[in-house]
Design a protein that fits this description.
Blueprint lengths: L3 E5 L16 H15 L5 E5 L8 H12 L5 E4 L6 H7 L10 E5 L2 E5 L17 H13 L4 E5 L9 H4 L6 H11 L2 E6 L6 E5 L2 E5 L25 E6 L6 E6 L18
Parallel strand pairs: 1-2, 2-3, 5-6, 6-7, 7-9
Antiparallel strand pairs: 1-10, 4-5, 8-9, 10-11
Helix pairs in contact: 1-2, 2-3, 4-6
The chain binds fe (ii) ion (FE2).
Amino acid sequence: MAEKILLMSDIHITEPGTQIIGLDPAARFWRCLTHAAEHHADAAHLFLMGDLTHHGQVAQYKILKQCLADQPFPATLMLGNHDRRRAFAEVFPECEPGFRQGRHSFGDTDVLYLDTLDEQAEDRHSGRLCPDRLNWLKSELEARQRPVIILSHHHMLRSGFDGMDAIPLRNGTEVAEMIAGSGRCQMVINGHIHRIIVSSYRGVTHAMIKSPCHQMPMVLGAGASSLSVAEPGGYGVLLLDPVAPLLHHVDVDLPECPVACDTESESRI
Ligand SMILES: [Fe+2]
């Protein structure tokens, strides 16, 4: 049976009483955790793929820690452009100091997770892999003998949303080239955009997942990166496979729709 991995990105925890376009990020995150525990209790791991908090404040990380205390999955926390290293380390001293990058092995697959946060970025929100992090990724890819899945907060390729494409992983093409050249990587998955998008670069799939909280409106082209829409929140369910891994997306809090069987038709769809 394929190993199942849960992916939640762009949680954007705020302080109590502070909403994002009328949504409570902690409540939306809690709904996703509860939903995952109920429907995917067999998942081996949960990755939180950055933008853990909205302002990188200690009080916000403390709320995140409370949310995670009672959920059942082993969790790995990544950082995004809204995070701040010092505040994160203050609340999560059990996490190793330094870049929040690493590797977890599941069955036949190795999952590498990247730290794309650049706190010195002039635009404040783009990401970058510095030479140290590039070298780490290069050595990991060279050392791996098995299929690899890579998790990143920032997107490496064009998303089609101009506002977001102004704040990508700035050396994303170089990184995507390195990944493709390794011949090891099945799929890159990122957050940051708050929308489901699938693209590819030299045969490697790049997939992007929604946020548990607020989403990017489906308006291609010009637009600010701060545009948001209160569509249902969600999370990714990744089924690992040495030949054909697949990524599902779960929308939480959809309107109630009872499952029906079309008895008139042999095939439902
Ligand atoms: Fe975000």
